[in-house]
């Protein structure tokens, strides 16, 4: 999905230096894969709750790829 489609489908954008992460709260199954996999990046206690640059792009995309619901997506720039 490109950014236009993600935003039109209810995803919010979280901007990093060279990677953007998109999250759709309506799709999230609360499996915790993201918060357990990369707690510095995905942390509900912080605002914004996704800090894309808190880990390497490879580490972030590895976790996003394991999101079981599709609630997390990314676009590398
Ligand atoms: S891994 Fe995906 S489904 Fe699980 S809590 Fe994170 S965003 Fe939600």
Automatic annotation (TrEMBL):
InterPro entries: Divergent_4Fe-4S_mono-cluster. Residues 14-76 form the Divergent 4Fe-4S mono-cluster domain. Pfam families: Fer4_19. This is Divergent 4Fe-4S mono-cluster domain-containing protein. The lineage of its organism: Bacteria, Bacillati, Bacillota, Bacilli, Bacillales.
